[in-house]
């Protein structure tokens, strides 16, 4: 695995590359970093070049100072990596907030994407209830700090907390390096993102949807509903996962990713 960085908007943007072949970028989500995909990188990199960025403010990437950041801003940041690596076509797959960025990237830079996928994510914009929940979280972070907040939410992202005890501890450790300011940026960006249902309905390239049976954040019916929108879509239901399928069911996740990537590259859409 090679660690690399570029300067984007005068800030360090870190990413890793592992393997050779057609390019696949895996995006992490809220309160995570690129290590969230560690179980899938080794297997996928045997056949493909796997790129895993740390989004601004997470992992080894420097945070942005601006309070108002959009999903489109994050999409432009990862596009800078694509340009730096001189990649003409690639597959982009995002987890949770990374899925929102994936859809924003398709909207802005469609010609670069061979296929795309979302893990435990949605194209729907936040409804009033979801916005109220996010604002409540913002208030908690402002009052109690980032680490205290993450302790309240991360365990509930897993279907079986006892079985996933090690993963939860590592998740908390990695998330603990993310500042309160960055978490607030992420929340504001999620609140203000636009609905991408029309994008899905007009999509002609392959798209993957991955949902967890026990996911409390993304209702499984939303994933099923959205999977019917694109012309060419695949939906996989993880029966023993909540919101963290890549950690809860790593082998199954790696296999379904490999199958989707193989299909997308063979079709050369």
What does this entry look like structurally?
The protein is α/β, with parallel strands linked by helices and 269 residues long. It has one domain (2-267): 3-Layer(aba) Sandwich (Rossmann fold). 44% of the residues lie in helices and 19% in strands. It has helices at residues 38-44, 71-84, 97-109, 128-144, 146-153, 165-175, 180-192, 197-202, 220-227, 245-248, 250-267; strands at residues 2-8, 11-18, 23-27, 49-53, 90-95, 113-119, 207-212, 233-238. An 8-stranded mixed sheet has the order 1-2-4-3-5-6-7-8, sandwiched between helices. Helix 2 (71-84) packs across helix 3 (97-109), helix 4 (128-144) crosses helix 5 and helix 4 (128-144) packs antiparallel against helix 7 (180-192). The radius of gyration is 17 Å and the shape is globular. It starts with a strand and ends with a helix. The model has no long low-confidence stretch (mean pLDDT 95).
List keywords for this structure.
single chain; 269 residues; alpha/beta; Rossmann fold; eight-stranded mixed sheet; 8 strands; 19% strand; globular
SSE topology:
Blueprint (H helix, E strand, L loop, with lengths): L1 E7 L2 E8 L4 E5 L10 H7 L4 E5 L17 H14 L5 E6 L1 H13 L3 E7 L8 H17 L1 H8 L11 H11 L4 H13 L4 H6 L4 E6 L7 H8 L5 E6 L6 H4 L1 H18 L2
Helix pairs in contact: 1-11, 2-3, 4-5, 4-7
